Amino acid sequence: MPEDHDWEAYKVPPTRTPVSERTTSVPNPVNYFQAAFNYVVDAPVTFVREWIERLQNRNKFYYYHQKFRRVPDLSECTEGDYLCYYEAEAQWRRDRMVDQEIVEIVRERLAACKQREGPNQFQNCAKEMELLAQVTKAFQDRYGDLGFHGNAWKCLMKQKHRMMEERKAAQEEQQ
C-alpha cells in the first residue's frame, strides 16, 4: 500500500471542533486547577480506594450464605443449661427448614421430570419418584406428628420412643 493517500479519492470528513490557536502567552488557569485537584483530592482518594481493594481481594467474603456453627444437640446439653437449650432449639429449627427445602427441591425435580417426559413419566422418572419417597419418609419419620408447635424436645422424645419400639421389636423377633 502506498504511503501517500489519495486525498481526493478518500475524503476525510471535516472536523466540527475548531482548532484553538493560542494567541496569548498567559497560561490557562484551568490547567493549574486540574493539576492541583488531581494532587490534592483525586490522588489520595484513588490511593486509599486501591489499598482497600487490595485488602478485600486478599480476604474474599461472600454474603450469600450465612454459615452457622453446629451447636450441641438437645441430648448433649447439661441439665439447667438454658442457653444450650435455646441454641439447640434454634439449630433444630434451622435443620427442619433445610429438610423442608430439600423435600421441596426433590418434589420440584419430580414435577419437572413428569412435565418433560409426559406419558412416559412412570418409566423415565422412576429414580426421582424413589428419591421423593425416601426423602418424604425420612422427613415424616423425624418431623411427622409434631404439629405446628413442634420443638426440639418433642422431636427428641419422638426419636427416643421410636428407638425403644425398634429395640423391643428386635427383641421379640429374636425370641
Automatic annotation (TrEMBL):
Intracellular or extracellular location(s): Mitochondrion inner membrane
A single cellular component GO annotation: respiratory chain complex I
Domain of life: Eukaryota
Membrane topology, record value: Peripheral membrane protein
UniProt cross-references to Pfam families, sorted A to Z: NDUFB10
Region annotation (Disordered) ranges: 1-24
UniProt cross-references to InterPro entries, sorted A to Z: NADH_UbQ_OxRdtase_su10, NDUFB10
Chief place where the protein resides: mitochondrion
Keywords, sorted A to Z: Electron transport, Membrane, Mitochondrion, Mitochondrion inner membrane, Respiratory chain, Transport
UniProt record similarity statement: Belongs to the complex I NDUFB10 subunit family.
Protein's job: Accessory subunit that is involved in the functional assembly of the mitochondrial respiratory chain complex I. Complex I has an NADH dehydrogenase activity with ubiquinone as an immediate electron acceptor and mediates the transfer of electrons from NADH to the respiratory chain.
Record's protein name: NADH dehydrogenase [ubiquinone] 1 beta subcomplex subunit 10
Organism: Polioptila caerulea (Blue-grey gnatcatcher)
